Amino acid sequence: MMTVSTLSDDDSPQKGALHAKSVEKLREMIVSGDLRPGDRIRESHFCKAFGVSRTPIREAVRTLAAEGLIRISPNRSPVVADLAEVDLGHLYDVVATLEAMASEQACRVITQGELVEIIAIHGRMLESFERGERAEYLKLNFRIHQRTVEIAGNPVLHATWLALMPNMERARALANLDRARWLGAVTEHSKMLSALAARDGALLAALTRAHFRNGLKVSEKFLVPGAPAPL
Amino acid sequence: MMTVSTLSDDDSPQKGALHAKSVEKLREMIVSGDLRPGDRIRESHFCKAFGVSRTPIREAVRTLAAEGLIRISPNRSPVVADLAEVDLGHLYDVVATLEAMASEQACRVITQGELVEIIAIHGRMLESFERGERAEYLKLNFRIHQRTVEIAGNPVLHATWLALMPNMERARALANLDRARWLGAVTEHSKMLSALAARDGALLAALTRAHFRNGLKVSEKFLVPGAPAPL
DNA sequence: CGCCGAACACTTGTATGCAAGAACCGGGAA
DNA sequence: TTCCCGGTTCTTGCATACAAGTGTTCGGCG
């Protein structure tokens, strides 16, 4: 679960990266919703889709299973994990705890330069919000959270946190379908940024927990049967 | 490198579990110290050792890499992750935070039956301590921590916590080489059990954090160069 | 004697073959 | 109609074959 995916977006013709690329593609397809929860992942299908053999696909599936995005049963097709079965409430609780911990640390060690960097990202995020560019907003939102955790300076915390992110992003995408919530999230982010700038760890931690609590309430609305379908 | 009990626990003729068993065996070998940090994991070697082909071994390696026990580089032999590079201090911090969270939850929801169960395990752990059976003690110790996290009733928390355990166990095994620390840990566990029985979540959380802080101090002693060799 | 290079052995990455089990489909009986 | 049963087809689990990259060693050369 602690994949610190060092491999990035390099499109190297490198021979030794077929399986890593399969991981990336599959994860992207799951997180983006291209693959829906419950969808079966038949190896042969993705072999043809990605133009590789079964071996890299199988290894990619193992990796994603370790991340919790896929469920595997012996002799059965792996399936995309259900967001509901992931139990959003519990997921939010854990992530909130981890980010609260990161917040306190970050307040203690953040440099002026890093603060400026985050403020810049925050600014761009606000612009995305005003233009209604959800995808861009989500990406920048993620960047802010990630930079905060990184700045905390605990690699184990970062890796643990990162492992929870794919499912978290799936849920956040749902929550932000609610326009009112989206506005609320933006407001909260501004307050959190102030606390960070003031290096008020306790306040930031509290704001962080509240931020997650509020997000959870909205996400849950979209998971009850008959809820508005995403996308 | 000691011999792996090739015919360990279950000798199921089950067809669909060769790779899962390889994961178990490899993890056990790493956690127990049978495989030392930096050791290269050559697929062919373990093929012969486990009597399987490369495919299950490769998949097992991916899984363990995702757990952070193994590091893989393209076209190079995977190696057992170095405990020092895992950064014990950071690891302890995160686990302490997670278990503190679990403690508070557990105090809120634990049943009388579960409490009795933990007390029983605790009793057996004390006996192991008095008999100086380190392996047995560690196993029971782990069981107590695990049951507490389970009882907290947050599956995401449990999974996240579990993912950190392999490295944690490796470190704990080192810490308990120090007899004084062993005694201290036993004492702390007794206090924690009292807090749990009293359902005092705040106290238990604080004790839990202290428990980890103390363990860390001793573990670190064994990681400086020239420290007493384990085993 | 030491440095450099090329062939060699070894290792991992990927593809494919084969067998066992699961899902699926259709037919027959209650 | 619906449920159950059998066979067919698909899918996974494991093994193996082949290709490509890496480290190593031994011989030649400066």
Provide a descriptive summary of the structure in words.
The structure is a homodimer of 231-residue chains. Chain A has 231 residues and is mainly alpha-helical. In chain A, 71% of the residues lie in helices and 2% in strands. Chain A contains ten helices and two strands; from the N terminus they run αααββααααααα. Chain A has helices at residues 18-32, 43-50, 54-67, 83-86, 88-109, 112-131, 134-152, 155-175, 179-197, 201-221, and strands at 70-71, 79-80. A two-stranded antiparallel sheet of chain A has the order 1-2. In chain A, helix 1 crosses helix 3, helix 6 (112-131) packs antiparallel against helix 9 (179-197) and helix 8 packs parallel to helix 10. The longest helix of chain A is centred in the middle third of the chain and has 22 residues, at 88-109. Residues 1-13 and 225-231 of chain A have low confidence and may be disordered. Chain A binds chain B through residues 1-3, 14, 16-17, 55, 58-59, 62-63, 65-68, 74-75, 86-87, 90-91, 93-94, 97-98, 101, 154-157, 159-160, 163-164, and chain B through 14-17, 55, 58-59, 62-63, 65-68, 74-75, 86-87, 90-91, 93-94, 97-98, 101, 154-157, 159-160, 163-164. The first copy, chain A, binds a DNA duplex (30 and 30 nucleotides) through helix 3.
Keywords:
homodimer, 231 residues, mainly alpha, 2% strand, disordered N terminus, DNA-binding
